[in-house]
Amino acid sequence: MSDAPDAAAAPEPPPAARPPIDSLLLAATRIATFEHQRGLTNASGFFFERDGRLYLVTSRHVLIDKPSKHFPNRIEIEVHTRADDLAKSVRISLLLYEDGQSCWRQGTDGSGEIDVAMLELDRDALPPSALLYAFTPDHLQHLDDPVEVGSSALIVGFPLGFHDTLHHLPVVRQSVIASAFGLRFQGLGYFLTDARTHRGTSGAPVVRRDLQAAPDAPLPWKLLGVHSARLDMAGRDLVQDESLGLNCAWYANMLMTLSEA
User: I need a surface site. Which of 3, 95, 178, 216 has the fewest CB within 10 A?
Assistant: First the structure.
């Protein structure tokens, strides 16, 4: 029998540090569009994960918009790398075309194109210390679950590209649900929000607090939709009448269709 002392048990690794902010702010990312090296526009996006695959979600018109002749061939996003120092981040460039084919997924329904796009991310291209939170199918607000009209919601994004440039974090705008949630407004796949929004907010997540989430849930929010654009009336008198201040938000359940294998 050996007299050697028993080997000491290997210490367990310390738990991953959690940032001292709401995880919702790390689920959204700023998007910059480019034509090669020429900067074009700023927009918003967020992360979605399903079956171990990670996606970037934004508005389709951020990636291509024929009416405005907007044809970027790549985008850049920002990803944090240290929970204890949110000033540390890296910019990641993503090509939008490969072998002449678009890399993103988009969808249509009986009423036409849906203004939502999803781009799969290569986890190996992210830094090993990448700090981000992703919505999952469990975060999606079911359309048959009651959401009262007038309920409060948040739009998390980068209006006009504005954000905390030191910590690379988005800003949050208050909104309310302005149409019957679960119904397709005028037969289209979106609902309305009442909020002050600007260019650059396109692709932002529309969320509300999940009151049923566990106290230690990493992302205690329900994802209602994807902010698209302001809605206005074509016949509005530009001199006498103010803008309606209403916005389109495409139902988030479309992400299940776009993320199918």
Answer: 3
Q: Which ranges in the chain belong to alpha helices (H)?
A: 60-63, 254-258
Find the helix or strand (DSSP H, E) in which 109 lies: strand 105-109
User: Which DSSP symbol is given to 73?
Assistant: S
From CA 135, how far away is CA 225, in angstroms rounded? Answer: 12
Joined together, the tokens standing for residue 168 give: 């690379």
Burial class (CB in 10 A: 0-12, 13-18, 19+), 196: middle
Only one residue has tokens 């948040």, namely: 154
CA 211 – CA 216 distance, rounded (Å): 12
Single pTM value for the model: 0.87
CA distances from 206 to 153, 159, 202, 251 (A): 7, 14, 11, 9
SS (H, E, C) 98-163: ECCEECCEEEEECCEEEEEEEEEECHHHCCCCCECCCECHHHECCCCCCCCCCCEEEEEECHHHCC
Residue 201 in contact with residue 214, Cβ under 8 Å?
A: no
Structure tokens of 130? 């990448």
The DSSP secondary-structure symbol of 213 reads: S
Q: Which two tokens stand for residue 39?
A: 């900067």
243: tokens are 């803008």
pLDDT tens digits along 4-38: 445 445 444 444 556 778 999 999 999 999 999 99
Radius of gyration of the chain (CA): 20
| Residue ranges of domains in the chain, CATH in brackets | 23-258 (2.40.10.120)
Digit-coded pLDDT (tens) for 141-187: 998 888 999 999 999 999 998 888 898 999 999 999 999 999 999 88
DSSP state of 255: H
